[in-house]
Design goal:
By secondary structure, the protein is an alpha/beta fold. It has a 6-stranded mixed beta sheet, with helices on both faces. The longest helix has 16 residues. The chain is globular. The N and C termini lie far apart (about 45 Å).
């Protein structure tokens, strides 16, 4: 079948790459190479792949040094569960880890680190069913992201473009956004469902924030049930989560 005969041509050969505001190294490399990427606060993960408003895939990026420190301080388990919960949603995104660095380099390992890191990565693959993509440097990571953005949009892939979204697609998008909201401390599934009922996607909420004179309290008053409404503190917390910048650190990669 030729391209002209394709009944469901893809709107684009590549997905949009969105970097978390903390991914300064990759965003700087992208600027040097002239590769277009979007930069904004991501509630979960470090790199997101979008097809329009549809979240196709989500990745957590770790250097070996940061991976080891996150295992020790508990961040690794928390971040892993956030990704895993999203991936288990009906129609949820493909979630995976990008591990950057050379495993044979002693510079990445403290005493016992090799055993901790290897064990954690083995558990990711065998127990939690998560893919791991290895890269060597920041430049290599960016090159890998560019390749993945094309591969994930190919019709033959599990996340490839399959033609125009049908009505079920909107429901899936809403379900993903609801689960993203539950990651925010203090936002229960019930509250998240109430928010996504009025704003079914990140894009629709972002537009509403931009048009509001008081965006921080936009969600205040939304009915959660017959007796309860979303309070101003929760509204401000949701707004802050999507707009606040993570603390700047001198480490090569913060999470």
């Amino acid at each position: 079948m030729t391209l002209q005969e394709d009944p469901c041509p893809r709107p684009s050969q590549t997905l949009d790459i969105v970097l978390d505001t903390n991914e300064r190294g990759i965003s700087a490399e992208a600027a040097v190479q002239g590769h277009p990427v979007q930069i904004r606060r991501l509630p979960v993960g470090d790199v997101a792949f979008y097809r329009g408003d549809e979240l196709v895939a989500l990745a957590e990026r770790k250097t070996l040094m940061d991976l080891d420190s996150s295992i020790l301080d508990g961040r690794f388990r928390e971040q892993r569960e956030r990704l895993r919960n999203l991936s288990l949603c009906d129609g949820g995104p493909l979630c995976f880890y990008i591990v950057e660095g050379c495993r044979c380099s002693a510079a990445y390992h403290s005493a016992g680190a090799s055993k901790r890191v290897d064990g954690a990565l083995e558990n990711l693959s065998l127990i939690h069913n998560m893919h791991i993509v290895w890269t060597q440097t920041i430049k290599d990571t960016l090159d890998t992201l560019r390749r993945l953005a094309i591969k994930l949009n190919e019709p033959g892939s599990s996340r490839g473009y399959a033609g125009p979204l049908k009505s079920r697609g909107a429901a899936l998008s809403e379900d993903i956004f609801t689960n993203m909201l539950t990651v925010i401390p203090g936002v229960s599934l019930t509250v998240a469902s109430a928010i996504s009922k009025s704003y079914p996607s990140w894009a629709s909420l972002s537009v509403a924030w931009s048009a509001s004179k008081s965006p921080e309290t936009l969600l205040s008053g939304l009915a959660v049930n017959q007796k309860r409404k979303v309070g101003p503190s929760v509204s401000k917390k949701v707004y802050a989560t999507f707009h606040a910048t993570k603390n700047i650190s001198t480490s090569p990669h913060d999470t």
